[in-house]
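Could you help me review a protein record that somebody else here produced? This is what I was given.
***
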Amino acid sequence: MILITKGNKNIVSNRIPIAENDIAFRFNAKLRTNFVVNSSNQISEYSDTEYSNIKLFQPILTNRPILQNNTVFFDGIDDNLTNTGVFSEDLIKEAWAVAQSDRAMFAAFDTLFTTRSSPQTLNMGMFGGNGGTNLYADLPTIARDVRVNNINTLSFLPMNQFKTIKIEADSSFTNMFISLDRAGGARWLGRISDIILFKRALVNEERFVLQNYLTRYHNL
């Protein structure tokens, strides 16, 4: 992990401690310069300037999430960010997110993100179970090794605390959708600080390093 000393404080670097060529995309709420916002901090555009130069958009004012305190708030009603052009031709093997939920229980499969090639075609997704507190992965094949805070569990309790979520996949994709499911609904209610898509599955040693990095970077 790279630490930058500033005064008497050690600041965690923005750079993920995994080889740059293995990272397909990052949604990083701490890099404010990656966002285009209005005077109310409503987000109309996000650019991944760290790894991919891929952009996500929201042209409709009432559907824009809000950038606040190094995280992004989604209202669970219509807030979302999408990329409707060609996103990537990379094969995604693993995904991580840092998020919390404002619900007591998930409702209607609250969706953190999906990758897909058309509105009804899903390549990979991360969502909360309908009427419960477990978090799941929705994939073309059976989800493997779902982890919360790098522990093999589906439980997202307590819901209002930020956690890391990790899933594995064998998924190609062309589009990225944050807070939007395969049918165009099921928004996330809560805050998302980070989403990272990897081109390969990490080994356990790298996952421990990444968990430690995200914990320190986002003060979890």
About this structure: Helices lie at 204-217. The chain has one helix and 17 strands. The domain at 23-200 is CATH 2.60.120 (Jelly Rolls). The chain has a mean pLDDT of 85.
